[in-house]
């Protein structure tokens, strides 16, 4: 169902703030995790002011260590809903299990499926039953064929609103957190009509590399970005090293506008 042979024109998804797919580029931005009302509202206000079309923020965090910050849960969802109400930005947040789908759908405009859950087939089927867009992250050890098969689990349940997100894969390179597979963008776009986005934050692992990776993704043809930014990144409870300061996010958005206009 994802194939360009089945649908020979790009899928364009429409949000209240803009579109993604075809020639349309949308940027989702916000903190890695929802940590407090103040932190999330501050981030929501400035990402909107600098031109983001969507707010991201994890209420449920899939942490590698069970002892690390796990997110605020339902309280986090309520904070995201408040941020949407104030800014008008649609909200995307991660859903970790099939049982959570209904709850997250009450608060969010789009589901995020994390890299660690990219082959959690019951979860993919559960969001396939929902009628909201899904940002599906590529698993860190997934081939592109496997990635598309995960998308098929969602599409085959009737939810055609799937965005594929390249977020870096495991390679032998240790300088970056993951290796952003820029090739995934043109390859996926030659196979599928679905929008393809890039997450430059998790592969970079370090904020100074986020802007170049984001621009590389867009130059390769990505239809959107999902970027982490935090009002006080040094104090972030997760992914502190890679979250952009506000001024860096503003710089990114200015460059994104220039690049997109030139493409
Ligand atoms: C995130 O977006 O904060 C996240 C956990 O991403 P990923 O699933 O790509 O690691
Ligand atoms: Mn993160």
Automatic annotation (TrEMBL):
Domain DAHP synthetase I/KDSA: 18-257
Superkingdom assignment: Bacteria
Signal peptide: none
Keyword entries, A-Z: Transferase
Protein name per UniProt: 3-deoxy-7-phosphoheptulonate synthase
Organism ancestry: Bacteria, Thermotogati, Deinococcota, Deinococci, Thermales
């Amino acid at each position: 169902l994802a194939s360009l042979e089945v649908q020979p024109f790009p899928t364009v998804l429409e949000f209240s703030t803009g579109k993604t797919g075809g020639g349309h580029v949308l940027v989702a931005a916000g903190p890695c995790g929802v940590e407090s009302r103040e932190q999330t509202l501050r981030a929501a206000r400035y990402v909107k002011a600098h031109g983001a079309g969507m707010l991201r923020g994890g209420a449920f965090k899939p942490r590698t260590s069970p002892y690390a910050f796990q997110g605020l849960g339902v309280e986090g969802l309520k904070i995201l809903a408040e941020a949407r109400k104030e800014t008008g930005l649609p909200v995307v947040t991660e859903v970790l299990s099939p049982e959570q789908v209904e709850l997250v759908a009450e608060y969010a405009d789009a589901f995020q499926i994390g890299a660690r859950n990219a082959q959690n087939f019951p979860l993919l089927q559960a969001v396939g039953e929902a009628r909201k867009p899904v940002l599906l992250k590529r698993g860190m050890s997934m081939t592109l064929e496997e990635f598309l098969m995960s998308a098929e689990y969602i599409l085959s349940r009737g939810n055609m609103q799937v965005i594929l997100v390249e977020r870096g894969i495991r390679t032998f390179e240790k300088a970056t957190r993951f290796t952003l597979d820029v090739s995934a963008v043109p390859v996926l776009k030659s196979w599928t009509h679905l929008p393809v986005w890039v997450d430059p934050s998790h592969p970079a692992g370090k904020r100074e590399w986020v802007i170049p990776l984001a621009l590389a993704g867009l130059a390769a043809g990505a239809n959107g970005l999902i970027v982490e930014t935090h009002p006080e990144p040094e104090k972030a409870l997760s992914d502190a090293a890679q979250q952009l300061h506000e001024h860096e996010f503003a710089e990114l958005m200015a460059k994104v506008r220039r690049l997109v206009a030139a493409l």
